Amino acid sequence: MDEPQQRTLDVIIARCRDLIPPIDILKHIKPGTLRVANNTLDGITFKAVDPDDLQAELGGRMKLPGAGKSPRPGAGALSFDATRAPRPANASMISMKEDPKHWALKASLGATIGEGFREQWRPPPQPRPALLPASSYGSKRISLGFGETGKRLTFTALHAAVAESECNIHIDERGFVVATPDGAVVTPTFWGHLANELLLKTKFRDWLDGLIGDNVVGSLVVEAVNRLSLRFPDAENGFAGLEGKVNRISGIGDVKDIGKALLPIGLSADLLRFKNSTVQANYYWHDGQQTLTLSWGGTFDKFGSK
């Protein structure tokens, strides 16, 4: 296993351990079946020791201390699994089993093979209000040009697919299922996830890979696609440009303006990737202006930023 693969595996293991309730994913992987990608967006693929047990834990139902083996569905006298604790109210992962009538969640899991689970993003606790009002410098348009190289883990979410034949766990770079007191909601960030992670970096990339074939050129093209990202108004850039576009929509007849609200506002490419940082080129067309910048961001232990 090379360094990028080891990094992918380590991050997936850590994210599973940080879930509520925590999951030791290694115990669910059948020996000899693990395949690890070079990036966390593709994640890890494996055959589960027991797919039913993995589904139960991803759903938040952990084995009770001293409990025996869980009965197969329909095999026991009880209509529920008495060997497992109930799902906690603050469980990280959600699936259609938790909210089968949630149409937006159903749409977000529509491309998942087997039983799908998504991590619900929760906003951090609100800080205490400052004694003095915060100063503001520059504009949102200028700040966009600095890219998102230092924000790679601010709005990400674990996504798991469990099937009898194969399982996959990866990290979506754009989390869009948010936990609220009234239940899970799907945010506008879903559009960026659909365009980049599902269409560009999965469907289009795999189609292009199959077209070119298994050779040096093919691997370079795949890597280039993996490093490209369309930028949309989303949580990381404060939904830049979305407010003005939406305010100009007065009814269903404004089809043109509705379409504009879904258009990208920029493009970025990861030029160089180091262990803890990335050099990124960012081109934005936003608010009647265009910017082209290079940014370098990440975590640097030697400078005390981690």
Descriptive account of the structure:
- With 306 residues, the protein is an alpha+beta fold.
- It has eight helices and twelve strands.
- The longest helix has 24 residues.
Write the layout of secondary structure elements.
Elements: H1 3-17, E1 35-36, E2 44-46, H2 51-58, E3 93-94, H3 103-108, E4 115-119, H4 140-144, E5 157-162, E6 167-172, E7 177-180, E8 183-186, H5 189-212, H6 216-227, E9 228-231, H7 242-247, H8 255-260, E10 266-273, E11 277-286, E12 289-298
What is the straight-line distance between the termini? 26 Å
Largest sheet: 6 strands, antiparallel
Level of helix content? 25-40%
Give the radius of gyration. Answer: 21 Å
Shape: globular
Strand portion: 15-25%
Structural class: alpha+beta
Ranges where pLDDT stays below 50 over 5 or more residues in a row are none
Could you give the order of the helices and strands? HEEHEHEHEEEEHHEHHEEE
Mean pLDDT: 77
| Total of DSSP H or I helical runs spanning 4+ residues | 8
User: Total number of β-strand segments?
Assistant: 12
The strands making up the biggest β-sheet line up spatially as 1-2-6-5-4-3
* Oligomeric category: single chain
Summary keywords:
single chain; 306 residues; alpha+beta; six-stranded antiparallel sheet; four-stranded antiparallel sheet; 8 helices; 12 strands; globular
Structure summarized in a few sentences:
The protein has 306 residues and is of the alpha+beta class.
